[in-house]
Every structure is written in C-alpha cells, then in structure tokens.
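Renewal narrative, Specific Aim 1. Our central claim is that a sequence can be written position by position from structural information alone. The example that follows is taken directly from our test logs and has not been curated for this report. It begins with the structure tokens describing the chain, in the order in which they were read.
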C-alpha cells in the first residue's frame, strides 16, 4: 500500500513537472511580457512636450516612438530610452522629465505588440529596432551626444546597442546578468537556458562596450535580485561604476536622493 501511494504521488509530480515545462516553453511570452496595446487613433496626453513618430519598417512592422522635447534651445543631446516589460510608453513617460530637465531630448520606443507598435515580438527584432532608433537619433545628433538608457528588461537592448554603436554613455537601471538567470531564480527545477526564446545577455555585451557604463541597482529588488545584477561587476571596466542603492526595490529607485543626485551628475558631464 505504501509503495502504491508513493508511486501515485510520483506519477502526479512527474505530470505536474512536465506540464509546467510545456507551459513555460509555449506560454513564455505571456509570462515574461505584459504589453498593453493602443488603438492607432489613440492620442497621448503627456504633460511633457512631445511628438509622436511612426517608423514603418515593412507592411507588418511599425515602430512607434515618442519624442519628449526640450522647450528651450539649449540641448545637451538625446537619451535613447528602452523601457521594461509591461504596458507601453504611457507607463514610462513619467520618467522623461528626469532627462529633459537636464537638457536632453528623449526618444522612447514601444516594442512590437506594445502600445501602437506592431510586428512579431522576437529577440532579433528587438535588436533590429534598437538600431533603427539609433539611426533615427543620428540623423540629428552626433554619437557623442547620445546616451543609451535601459530599464529592467530594456537593459539588454541598451547594452546590445552600446556594444555595436558609439555613444556618450550607457546607463542601466536594475539590469540582469542574462534573461535565463532571472527566470532560473524563480524556476530552478527547469533547464530554462535551453527553454527560453530570449537570452538578452548583458554580461556578454558589456565586453564590447567602449564607453563608460553606469549601473543603478537596489539591494531589495524582488524582481531582478541584487545578487543577479552583482554578477555583472566582473565585466565592468575601470571607468565603469556599479551604484548600490541600500533598500532600493525594482521600481522605486528614483525616490532615493542618491540616484537623483548621481543621475543628474552623469547627465551634466
């Protein structure tokens, strides 16, 4: 009887494990990304002066971005802002003033399926779009006037772009070592490195970034752990910096004076 009961539970556990693995593999986009689509006719109502821009890539792909504009004529440059994995530009627009107040325009894109952007969401397409954004910025600004900024999921795109194009500085908010290491923290029983369609290896791209890198990460980050981000330190150059925010969480770093003071200092250099 005891063996039969144990065998029964073992079979149940195996089926749960297999079922969970199948769900992770086929539903990973829904698990990892939480976009909110917007109708083409939707009008943004941001307080910050702005301009909506569409870059048609082909019949199926449209890159939608918002340009947050400086109201005066003094411009230090432009920030290419790669946001996180949820909603759309509307959710992240509140951060634009952090840069415009320091003399920068901000170009913020939505990924395929986010906001008004359309196309099939793949890692390759994200990389291609990052370079489209850079090309658009270079039509107005010199490379040394471009700051590449990534938040959370967007740090992988920011690092990729900085590893291939010239800029003034790469700034990352709550980055990760790579995407599989983030998911492994929550699902250590699965070989996620072989199951995920997305790698976004910050650690790999760091090795090809010539410009200074600045990282902000909180010790209490419950989404991308401080321990995970800390693994990036060994890939930093002498001119780079890893700024630890004691008690900082994933989405509250701008509430810490240390972050604001340091970010303002970086933007004014």
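The sequence written for that structure reads:
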């Amino acid at each position: 009887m005891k063996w039969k009961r144990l065998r029964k539970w073992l079979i149940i556990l195996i089926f749960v494990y297999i079922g969970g693995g199948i769900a992770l593999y086929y539903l990973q986009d829904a698990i990892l990304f939480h976009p909110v689509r917007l109708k083409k006719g939707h009008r943004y109502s941001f307080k910050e002066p702005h301009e909506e821009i569409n870059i048609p890539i082909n019949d199926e792909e449209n890159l939608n971005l918002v340009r947050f504009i400086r109201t005066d004529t003094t411009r230090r440059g432009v920030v290419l802002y790669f946001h996180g994995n949820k909603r759309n530009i509307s959710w992240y627009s509140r951060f634009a003033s952090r840069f415009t107040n320091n003399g920068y325009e901000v170009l913020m894109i939505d990924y395929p399926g986010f906001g008004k952007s359309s196309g099939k969401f793949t890692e390759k397409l994200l990389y291609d779009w990052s370079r489209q954004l850079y090309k658009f910025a270079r039509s107005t600004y010199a490379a040394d006037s471009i700051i590449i900024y990534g938040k959370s999921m967007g740090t992988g795109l920011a690092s990729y772009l900085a590893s291939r194009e010239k800029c003034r500085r790469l700034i990352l908010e709550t980055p990760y070592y790579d995407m599989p290491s983030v998911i492994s923290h929550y699902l250590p029983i699965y070989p996620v490195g072989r199951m995920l369609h997305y790698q976004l290896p910050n650690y790999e791209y760091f090795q090809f970034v010539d410009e200074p890198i600045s990282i902000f990460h909180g010790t209490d980050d419950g989404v991308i752990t401080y321990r995970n981000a800390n693994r990036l330190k060994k890939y930093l150059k002498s001119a780079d910096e890893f700024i630890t925010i004691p008690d900082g969480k994933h989405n509250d770093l701008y509430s810490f004076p240390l972050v604001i003071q340091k970010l303002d200092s970086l933007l004014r250099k």
